């Protein structure tokens, strides 16, 4: 996709999400939260769903978990403007309950379109609902921080910042996992360069 096509698609998704009534969450939301960030991002982060602050503002990760996420990004040498941040469901589950399987399913087309348009090198899943999209049946305590090649990208499951914020063990785990991001990006570059020197199409990363 050209940059103009990406922009158009991301704008279209955001507009559709804003007026979406595909699931029950549309009835209780104040603001849908399509996601935000750099549409040319190399890193895309996927959270769970908007909380109270996000629902008020229509923006992802703006509450306490968002502040912590900003710190984690800074430690990885990244800023909010470098990445794209969205959620599995774009509307707040009432009382911050878990999103239901049919809600996740109803919303999945938007996430897929965002993924296609941005085409990131690295996807970071935050918490178990976005992890389950890529690692069904896995346990976060077992696989957090371990990058896996899926198609043309690396997917790295991480703890949810809201959970990690208040539990010391998880906090150091998520800090360590975020600190790996620069290395992972460099590794993607290295493999791509090696592939282009050998004139092989870089459509499959063979990293892990
Ligand atoms: N938690 C999430 O999963 N997403 C947000 O946008 C905010 C908090
Ligand atoms: Fe639509 Fe997703 Fe919001 Fe449900 S959560 S109403 S599918 S945008």
Would you kindly provide a brief summary of this structure?
The chain has 208 residues and is an alpha/beta fold. The protein has helices spanning 3-18, 25-28, 52-57, 64-75, 101-118, 128-134, 140-143, 161-165, 168-179, 181-197; strands spanning 36-37, 43-47, 84-87, 122-126, 148-150, 153-158.
Describe this structure in words.
The protein has a six-stranded mixed β-sheet with strand order 1-3-2-4-6-5, with helices on both faces. It is built from ten helices and six strands. α1 packs antiparallel against α5. The chain has a single domain (3-204), classed as Uracil-DNA glycosylase-like domain (Uracil-DNA Glycosylase, subunit E). The longest helix is centred in the middle third of the chain and has 18 residues, at 101-118. With 208 residues, the protein is α/β, with parallel strands linked by helices. It binds uracil (URA) and iron/sulfur cluster (SF4).
What's the layout of helices and strands?
Layout lengths: L2 H16 L6 H4 L7 E2 L5 E5 L4 H6 L6 H12 L8 E4 L13 H18 L3 E5 L1 H7 L5 H4 L4 E3 L2 E6 L2 H5 L2 H12 L1 H17 L11
Parallel strand pairs: 2-3, 2-4, 4-6
Antiparallel strand pairs: 1-3, 5-6
Helix pairs in contact: 1-5
The chain binds uracil (URA) and iron/sulfur cluster.
């Amino acid at each position: 996709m050209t940059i103009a096509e990406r922009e158009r698609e991301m704008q279209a998704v955001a507009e559709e999400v804003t007026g979406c009534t595909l699931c029950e969450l549309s009835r209780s939301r104040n603001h849908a939260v399509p996601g935000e960030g750099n549409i040319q991002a190399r890193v895309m982060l996927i959270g769970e769903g908007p909380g109270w602050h996000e629902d008020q503002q229509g923006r992802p990760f703006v509450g306490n978990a968002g502040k912590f996420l900003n710190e984690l990004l800074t430690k990885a040498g990244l800023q909010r403007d470098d990445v794209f941040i969205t959620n599995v469901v774009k509307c707040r589950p009432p009382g911050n309950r878990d999103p239901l399987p049919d809600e996740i399913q109803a919303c999945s087309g938007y996430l897929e379109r965002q993924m296609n348009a941005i085409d990131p090198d690295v996807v970071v899943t935050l918490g178990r609902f976005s992890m389950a999209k890529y690692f069904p049946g896995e346990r976060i305590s077992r696989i957090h921080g371990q990058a896996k090649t899926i198609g043309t990208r690396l997917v790295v499951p991480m703890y949810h910042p809201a959970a990690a914020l208040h539990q010391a063990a998880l906090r150091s785990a998520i800090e360590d996992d975020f600190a790996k991001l620069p290395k992972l990006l460099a590794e993607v570059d290295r493999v791509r360069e090696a592939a282009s020197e050998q004139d092989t199409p870089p459509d499959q990363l063979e990293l892990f």
